[in-house]
Amino acid sequence: MKHSRQGRPVAARLATPLMALAFMAAAPAMVVTVAAAPQETADRQSPRQRVPFNDGWKFTLGDPGGNSAPYLYDIRPEVKESADGKVADAMPEEAARIARGNVPLLKPWILPTGNAFIKDPAKRFTRPAQEPAIDAPYARAEFDDSAWRAVTLPHDWAIEGPFLKTGPYGGMGRLKTWGPAWYRNKIAITNADAGKSVFLDIDGAMAYSSVWINGKLAGGWPYGYNSFRIDLTKFLKPGDNQLAIRLDNTAESARWYPGAGLYRNVWLTKTAPVHVGQWGVQVRTPKVSKESAQVAWNVTLDNAGTAPATADVTTQLYALDGKGRMTGNAVATAVSPRTTIAPGASATVAGDTTLRNPRLWGPVPNQTPNRYAAVTTVRQDGRVIDRYETPFGIRDLRFDASRGLFVNGEHVPIRGVNNHHDLGALGAAFNVRAAERQLEIMLEMGINALRVSHNPPDPQLLDLTDRMGIVVQDEVFDSWERKKTPLDFHLIFPEWHEQDLRAMLRRDRNHPSIVMWSVGNEVGEQYTGEHGAAIGRKLVGIVHEEDPGRPATTAMNWAKPDMPLPATMDVISLNYQGTGIRTLPGQFPAFREKFPDKVILHTESASALSSRGEYQFPVPGALSASVRPGAGGDPKTQQVSAYELFASDFGSSADRAFASLDQNPYTAGEFVWTGFDYLGEPTPYYGARSSYSGIVDLAGFRKDRYYLYQARWRPDLKMAHILPHWTWPDRVGEVTPVHVFTSGDEAELFVNGKSQGRLKVAPYAYRLRWDFVTYEPGTIEVVAYKDGKEWARSSVKTADAPSALQAVADRATIAGDGRDLSFITVRVTDKAGLTSPRASNRVRFTVEGPGELVATDNGDPTSFESFQSPERAAFNGLVLGVVRAKAGGKGPITVRVSAEGLQGTKVQLRSTGR
Predict the structure, then answer these.
(1) Which of 700, 684, 606 is nearest to 639 (CA)?
(2) For residue 875, what is the DSSP state?
(3) Residue 821 is inside which H or E element, if any?
């Protein structure tokens, strides 16, 4: 359900002949348009209530008596062999054949939940007349849940661990995310709710959810990443109503950490019988210029009543400020024709207006992410019965096969990253501040784009990308009919792909940050010829029906230009094979020749690997190399060298990926794999807990590679970065290569004041290398030049023994809402304040005042210490503490940081209260 912080829009203009998609015009309508301010303000009174439903939950693991058989959604195949550790680019396999027999299942009662997203009424599901023959004690009001744990949503129960140190669990992060879990809460229905429709809106639940109200099964949704709605109306009674939600995520269900539980927000929505439907407003901007913009919209009204209803719809447009608040009077008002909605049916009304001198939405750093809100007011007989707010942005999109993306006429090379959905030590439970911090770190590096891999994100993430001016590729599936792990989405794809895809599109289509849709990632149907192409064609067709203004794509790591699947896509998206996989040559030229009128995009580039601060010797002279024992990797420590020359077998260093893009300038840009390390998929060492591919480690500390991307993506930033650190007491007199990443074009290196030579950046090279420097303690300094003039200086000094701790908070003032966070970086330093780059001292956090420590981390992919531990070893000199202000708390918070034998420190925070 959209509300004042959800939903966004907008239409795109596709320029190349094969990519041109006709914009779906609204039905003709008599519209009164007033484009000039001031206007009457919108009627703020509305029967609609949409309130957070995150407090007061009780939680337990397991089913009653340990018997899960009565609650199964469907029969699952027997897993005889784990998929853990399988090469990431391995060919997906055919689905296992399942003998279903006559086992009672919940699927017939859950499938109807998705009916609104099935276009053909004949294919919709009918709920069985009889209730399922299940006596579900956890769903009954009289069940005593006093022994259950009290929790607040969003809640990821799996992040608490413990870590699984042995067995085939690395792919899913070595945290147990599988097994049944139940949540219970009560819904109070008062006399004021009489005659209203009541919905439960869930932004995400992992996974195979079944929702019970007063002991009856109301519905559910299998896919753990999608948002969905349950209509509770007919199951409710006056007074308290018992809600119970069962989740049943499976082992072997993902290639990364999926999280567990009700890990996103839950909402309770109450409306009049006639109301704007779920995600029922679509706003488009079919014609945009700096001088004027046409804004068009469709509004879908639902009638849950038993008689026909007539309604009037007024739409007003307001400008939003940087925080998403409506400002001033309406800048336009339009009244759509009166419409009649049959009982139990829906009707759509259309409207449009033209704004003069619109405030355009555009990506940073060159444009401004301005936004508006469409306020839809529904009246019956002059009485307001619903009011609905839809944020959106006005921008023009154009895709050019020779240059890529244009926004508002400006060429926008895609400088993006992929990110998985976990938030490091916080797990999958979504937190706005944690996600905002990740994006802030990426923006400082120079990104302008994000690919959400490989599933619909929390809607609040898209709110952030809208507000922060980051373009997005929104993705729905990691698999279709073929499987990557034995129990992944392929099990439900045949019956749920349409519902899941349309649900994501309708939820997210109003976000101006989204510039294209992805219907899949490295799917097995690349290998199945015309059969796979038929599925791709169907999914792309759904995208065009729901949002004909944006292109659709799927990320391919194996398909070749002459195969059927690529031809079904609007955009050619290549994972790694653009640069070249293993011994295979880069495929950019071959795809360009076959599809000269289509945009070609590197949806996953590099997949470089490193552990922050871990430098291994000797250093090869290669530009890019796979990790091997003694050559980039240490199987004993399970660490990867931080010289940033090493990659997965199917990937490449950042340097090699840069060269392939520069040598093929028609490419639209890249999404690097990945911005942040993430839980699970720890290539090449599946004994670890988290990946090595991030430009930033799991704790949010920058790896050296960060500055390589910053030098490329922020060429006007005067910077030079030196690696490695210069504290090597065991390497005196030995060759210790020094590399420099700079936005300059040449540089000179000095060791204790002695020049090591001045080097120029060579064509298709992206670092400067002094590979034969002899280590001696002291100072190394680089002076970078650009166009012959001094550009930037940087130095690294040898540190003495660890002596003290230094701590700094990313934010000293936080809200006392029980959600806002402060991230505290602790450095182990010598007596002069230099970071001790090899320190591993154990650091302890103590919090005083209205705050609490919620997590710690150090970025070490091999650490199995609990994220909730208040004490943690530093990893190469750094430790992170995450502090939250208690709900309702106000006043000073003191965070003390200590370590045995070191001088401690403290950080002062302040909670502002709610």
Answers:
(1) 684
(2) B
(3) strand 821-829
For residues 741 and 720, the answer to whether their CB atoms sit within 8 Å is: yes
Other beta carbons within 10 angstroms of residue 106's beta carbon come to 21
What are the residues facing 822 on neighbouring strands? 883
Structure tokens at 435: 């996600």
Cα(228)–Cα(200) distance, rounded to whole angstroms? 8
Q: In the 8-state DSSP scheme, what is residue 503?
A: H
**Helix, strand, coil tally for the chain in percent (to 5):** 15, 35, 50
* β-pair type (471-475, 292-303): unpaired
| Interatomic CA distance for residues 554 and 521, integer angstroms | 6
pLDDT, tens only, 845-868:
999 999 999 999 999 999 999 999
**End-to-end distance of the chain based on CA atoms, in angstroms?**
25
* CA 299 to chain centroid: 28
**Both structure tokens of 242:** 């018992």
Active-site annotation holder among 252, 389, 475, 522: 522
> Burial, 723: exposed, middle or buried (Cβ in 10 Å; 0-12, 13-18, 19+)?
buried
Residue 10: pLDDT over 90: no
Cβ atoms of 470 and 415 within 8 Å: the answer is no
Q: How far is CA 700 from the centre of its chain?
A: 16
| CB-based contact 60:323 (threshold 8 Å) | no
- The C-alpha torsion from 122 through 127 and 128 to 131, rounded to 10°, is 180
Pairing of strands 821-829, 804-809: antiparallel
Residues with Cβ within 8 Å of residue 383, at least 6 apart in sequence: none
DSSP, res 117: G
Helix (H, G, I), strand (E, B) or coil at 327: strand
Please list the residues that pair with 412 across neighbouring strands: none
- Say if residues 443 and 364 touch (Cβ distance below 8 Å): yes
- What pTM, to 2 d.p., does this model score? 0.94
List residues bridging with 760 in a β-sheet: 746
Helix residue spans in 509-646 (DSSP H):
529-546, 564-567, 588-594
Query: Under 8 Å CB-to-CB from 336, ≥6 apart: which residues?
Result: 29, 31, 299, 312, 313, 314, 315, 349, 350, 351
The two structure tokens encoding residue 760: 């120029």
Strands 49-52 and 274-288, sheet pairing: unpaired
Q: What is the total residue count of the chain? A: 914
- For residue 470 the two structure tokens come to 């980051």
pLDDT at 46: 67
Out of 525, 604, 644, 865, which one is annotated catalytic?
Answer: 604
Q: Using CA atoms, how far apart are residues 809 and 907, in angstroms rounded to an integer?
A: 7
pLDDT at position 355 is: 97
Closest CA to 84 of 195, 164, 199, 186: 164
Residue whose entry in the numeric block shows the structure tokens 């029922």: 280
CA pair distance 209, 216, nearest whole angstrom = 14
Answer yes or no: 522 catalytic.
yes
Determine the Cα–Cα distance for residues 309 and 304; give it in Å rounded to an integer. 10
Beta-carbon count within 10 A of 701 CB: 23
Provide CB contacts within 8 A for 909, sequence distance 6+.
809, 811, 812, 813, 814, 822, 849, 851, 883, 885, 892, 893, 894, 895
Cα 488 to Cα 83: distance, rounded to the nearest angstrom:
11
Q: Cα–Cα distances in Å, from 731 out to 530, 618, 728, 762, 778?
A: 59, 12, 5, 30, 13
Residue range 215-260, pLDDT digits in tens: 999 999 999 999 999 999 999 999 999 999 999 999 999 999 999 9
The C-alpha angle 634, 635, 640, rounded to 5 degrees, equals 40
Segment 524-566, tens digit of pLDDT = 999 999 999 999 999 999 999 999 999 999 999 999 999 999 9
Alpha-carbon span 549 to 551, nearest angstrom: 7
Known catalytic membership, residue 593: no
Q: Using alpha carbons, select from 496, 493, 453 the residue that is nearest to residue 476.
A: 453
3-state SS of 228-258?
Answer: EEEECHHHCCCEEEEEEEEEEECCCCCCCCC
